[in-house]
Here is the input.
Amino acid sequence: MYKISICNFVFGTTVLQPRMAVARLKNQNPGVGHCTKVPRNVNMEKLQHGYLFPEIERHELLHSNKYPHAKVINLGIGDTTEPLPTIITSTMVDFVNGLSTTQGYKGYGPEQGEKPLRKAIADAFYKDLGIKPTEVFVSDGAQCDITRLQLLLGSDVKIAVQDPSFPAYIDSSVIIGQAGELVARAGKYRNIEYMKCGPMNNFFPDLSATSRSEIIFFCSPNNPTGHAATRKQLEQLVHFAKVNGSIIIFDSAYAAYITDDSPRSIFEIPGAREVAIEVSSFSKFSGFTGVRLGWTVVPEELLFSNGFPVVNDFNRIMCTCFNGASNIAQAGGLACLSPEGFKAVRSRINYYMENARILVNALASLGLTVYGGKNAPYVWVHLPGSKSWKVFADILEKTHIITVRAVALAPLVKST
Amino acid sequence: MYKISICNFVFGTTVLQPRMAVARLKNQNPGVGHCTKVPRNVNMEKLQHGYLFPEIERHELLHSNKYPHAKVINLGIGDTTEPLPTIITSTMVDFVNGLSTTQGYKGYGPEQGEKPLRKAIADAFYKDLGIKPTEVFVSDGAQCDITRLQLLLGSDVKIAVQDPSFPAYIDSSVIIGQAGELVARAGKYRNIEYMKCGPMNNFFPDLSATSRSEIIFFCSPNNPTGHAATRKQLEQLVHFAKVNGSIIIFDSAYAAYITDDSPRSIFEIPGAREVAIEVSSFSKFSGFTGVRLGWTVVPEELLFSNGFPVVNDFNRIMCTCFNGASNIAQAGGLACLSPEGFKAVRSRINYYMENARILVNALASLGLTVYGGKNAPYVWVHLPGSKSWKVFADILEKTHIITVRAVALAPLVKST
Here is the structure.
């Protein structure tokens, strides 16, 4: 299996003498210069080598230097490539032009997001699910909200993650101090519960073998396996969280890619309001990866063990550690949720899914076992007997394709 | 003295039975509903009542309900009010229109910001100060960067703040777990060093009476007192940090408002590269409070006690916990730093400073002692013998003016 979750990386041990190493790299005398007496954060020391995506970028750069004429195709980070529909950009243009007028100028907005956008998100994604606009917090993206949720939770909780999983859950957990020691050989942290998900269990963890943790990160449709959890699976998950007194942080960033009747939100499952937070994003829904817009839903019924509403603390975090998403991005987000905007955005999603289909068919025709690509733009390929980075390097060397996650967001183009 | 720093608030004790209280407020039976077993973060429990600015908003709303016909003037949060120069918005419009084209579409950008913008910031604000573009990290604002710096530092450091100070330094410190217990009577945290700044010491702390702390937050021109530290004062500060092995986090968000020869950056002081980080913003410089854009400078020479470069960890934080500022805001920021853009932005700053002068003169003509308004848009008024919130309430009740911080960004208009 071509596994690429960061928890499976073994990147060598921490540099024990970083000053020496840095100085050597820079060809300097390490004895020179002033050192502060501020200790390096022990949590930062525990992080593995580099965050996944910049690490991939580094490999891409090295490859481009080696093959300056190669046309590299990047299927790595899952970036969007298609121009935004003009109905979205024309709304943003109007908003930006307004900023030059007395009537249209806007300064600070509410840290939680503009009211019409909060309402539009509740209406568009949570219709009939009872989510109030005041439970929707607009942000600059899901990855940023994950860190803010970790700030809210603090270091005294244990998290569980799907294995493989999006690396931000684990890395933010390490930074906030929840993860415990790194077991270098396994590339895993002692205090994180890794819930194995693969073809053997229909990409859903064996909950009977899963230890209790306060927080369960769960991404569906899953990045990177491409699997969307079924209603029955999510009912089991909500039940498991309720019995254990856990909070699910449900990442639905790819919900718009679901083509069958898999739930698009955890709040489709009865009882989820008492056990779940949902993090989501305009990035893959409407190509806002660079524009930056996301949201998080925290239901009022979600309570800490002392009965205090989680939403109150999240509101405090958003007001103190964040200052609102760009008002231009918010204007664009509102346009995406208009009937015409929604339709236009839909056409882009269909395009990306067509790319996924092309990839799946091509890989299958090579005799490979392929998962995903049906309810998500991610394609998960079985390449037995090799380590992730080894496969990554082989594919890059032979085809000039960046994979790591075989993402189908970029069109399939023959490499040169 | 009309003191408004959050460290001086006494807001009553923490609600001991929040679930009960919340239920009572919502007229619900507190026994009903599921509680998770996730403990509330003890650091969140230590935060005082509400973050300053939302708290002010709450007062404003109550006042508007009481006097629905009053025209309230908000001099509170220090918002910008003047339309953006068209040279800035037209650049953003071009960028947004480009997002609808194959050539102009952009997905994920570098988490650290677009290279041309990093270079332009280095050139515009740090000319001849030796700051490299790679030491400049573009962000969605200074307040957000302050939290990210706290994430980088972790809980095992002690911070010092000017007293009074911008509330985000203290609140982010509490959230990350540095602050220690709250001494409710004093409204101060045990493990934070409060450096008194006022007319008695020319708004610069008595460093001989200041205990060592790992981190010194220092804002100049100061929010809220309006005082810009002199070169000599900043030399003392850098010396103090060097001797103590401390790191200064210098907030220069109002540097563009300096009218005399006070340093606009901590990096004007020799030796600062080894002891200081600088956080800054386009918010007050170019009216981007709602557009959201800021930056942080971390020099390569700044090292933790083990010799590890701070910039490496900040880079990791930016890549893991942040996903880049909105690319539209970045395009706008670049336009602000063009020669024409800079000139246009300058005219807005002059306008705000003219407002400050009007306020200072009016308040002085009432016989009040007034500070600030010369190198910053903030005006600091001596109103002896009263508590902050009492003065706040009196002014609001009698004049329909929101003060807390007597900010001159809004034009002085007679209330009705």
The mean pLDDT of chain A is 88. Residues 70 and 344 of chain A are 34 Å apart (CA to CA).
